[in-house]
Design brief:
The chain has 298 residues and is of the alpha/beta class. The protein has 11 helices and 14 strands. It folds into 3 domains: 79 residues, Winged helix-like DNA-binding domain superfamily/Winged helix DNA-binding domain (Arc Repressor Mutant, subunit A, Orthogonal Bundle), CATH 1.10.10.10; 100 residues, 3-Layer(aba) Sandwich (D-Maltodextrin-Binding Protein, domain 2), CATH 3.40.190; 102 residues, D-Maltodextrin-Binding Protein, domain 2 (3-Layer(aba) Sandwich), CATH 3.40.190.290. It is 41% helix and 24% strand.
């Protein structure tokens, strides 16, 4: 029977498509990754990975072997958890959007870590939708509609937006009483919205409109947009979570009180597999409870 470390190394290198990337995650050298996989090939008399100077890919034997390896690793993890008496341990690789990662995740991670100090979180905050399987993530938090895939998704909350500007900006440029006025206003565009220059609104009677906006600043970092708005650079269309304190303190003023912005669903997303490690299942339950309280559905 092969050593589990060798099997984990092969599975990770196969998912990531790179010995170097697998080595970084495992905190070993690429040469060690190569030796472990070569040992598996010699032990089972199989050619698992074809490598060139520029690329690598699984052989047909390698694809079949990977299926068996992942089943063995899942079973080994489940057996390990049977011996635990309420203690969780191991690593959770998590990815989330930057805004949620800054405003909501820290408190949640701190609370979970205090309860389960044996769990290590490796967290990547990015607005890019990573490939969970190929990049080796256990869990993602995602905002917006999800494309059809083999991933396991669970709705955990609702993401809301606010359209607002600084009082000084409104004094300089005059009041804004209807969303259509934004077509002539100076706006700070959010590159994380697609499309960035078309802002949707829902009226008091349920009518839906979309306003084409423009401005001199387009940026992809939510906190920088908030600061630009507070400094009077223009109107912003941002997550409500990010500007709630500024609205309460009067640093920003909400616009169009009779209109609302469409919301987006928040999901937790996991790779599809039959055996979910208990540490991940426990964290997802806490995540769901806290996010449904923080981001209730309409």
């Amino acid at each position: 029977m092969a050593d589990l470390d060798d099997l984990r190394t092969f599975a990770l290198a196969a998912r990531l498509g790179s010995f170097a990337r697998a080595a970084r995650q495992l905190n070993v050298s690429p040469a060690m990754v190569g030796r472990r996989i070569q040992g598996l090939e010699q032990r089972y008399q199989l050619k698992l990975i074809e490598r060139t100077t520029r690329s690598q890919h699984l052989t047909e034997q390698g694809r079949l072997f990977l299926t068996k390896v992942e089943a063995v690793l899942e079973a080994a993890e489940a057996l390990g958890e049977l011996s635990e008496t309420g203690t969780l341990s191991g690593r959770i690789r998590l990815t989330a959007p930057t805004m949620i990662g800054v405003t909501r995740l820290p408190t949640l991670l701190a609370a979970f870590s205090a309860q389960h100090p044996g769990v290590i979180f490796e967290t990547s905050l990015s607005n890019r939708r990573v490939d969970l399987v190929s990049e080796g993530f256990d869990l993602a938090i995602r905002v917006g509609a999800l494309p059809s895939s083999g991933l396991v998704a669970r709705r955990i909350g609702t993401y809301r937006f606010a359209c607002c500007a600084a009082p000084e900006f409104l004094r300089r440029h005059g009041p804004l009483v209807h969303p259509y006025q934004l077509a002539q206003a100076r706006c700070v565009l959010n590159l994380n919205l697609v499309p960035r220059n078309r802002w949707p609104f829902v009226g008091p009677e349920g009518e839906e409109i979309t306003v084409t906006v423009g401005g001199g600043i387009e940026i992809d970092y939510d906190e920088a947009q908030r600061m630009l708005a507070v400094d009077g650079a223009g109107v912003v269309y941002l997550p409500l979570d990010l500007v709630a304190d500024d609205l309460a303190a009067g640093r920003l003023v909400g616009l169009f009180p009779d209109w609302r912005m469409p919301s987006m669903p928040i999901h937790s997303v996991q790779p599809s597999r039959s055996l979910v490690p208990r540490r991940i299942g426990t964290f997802v339950e806490m995540l769901t409870t806290e996010f449904r309280r923080s981001y209730p559905e309409e």
